[in-house]
Design a protein that fits this description.
Blueprint lengths: L8 H17 L18 E12 L2 E14 L4 E12 L6 E13 L5 E11 L4 E11 L4 E4 L5 E5 L4 E5 L2 E3 L4 E3 L2 E6 L8
Antiparallel strand pairs: 1-2, 2-3, 3-4, 4-5, 5-6, 6-7, 6-8, 7-10, 8-9, 9-12, 10-11
Amino acid sequence: MIRRAGLSVFSVFSMTVALGVLILGCSFDYGPTEGTDTQSIPEVVMTGVDYYQIREGKATLHFQSDRVERFENRGIMRVRGLRFEKFDTDGKRVSASGLANLGEINLNSKDVQLNQSIRLQIPQENLSLETNSLFWTNANRLLSGSPEEPVLLKRSDGTIIQGRGFSGSAKDRTFEFSNGVSGIYRTEKENP
């Protein structure tokens, strides 16, 4: 009697069915596993972002970022390598511009925390600001510095002021420091 080496048709069929069940039973949904912190995983990640906000046919904001991470479940957006320009109501003149290494935006309140190498410029005021930590409270239109971080203000007239505990109101167009203020303040009478 001659025996055939190999698998029978039934065995091949059984293995094919078993393999098919395994493949179809697998899911490519690699969602959170036990111990995974879903709050730290962004739903959207974008790189090389260049965004214009247009209202009534006019540019109101130009925003660029090296990386944007959006966390819908936490209601925040994190940005790295941020550069922005805010335009006047006519959409032609830049009313403020700036950059920061890191930022976090609250998507509900529109409050913004900026960190590391922050530089802001306000052309109409001939004013620039440099620091490492700023917080924008949108509801009050208030810009605040960290109590520990120095903020440096410069004007084109030669005014240079540095201090800690910076607070600036966009409504009132005023600013103040609560600690360690020093510098040179030029008045209109002193300017030629």
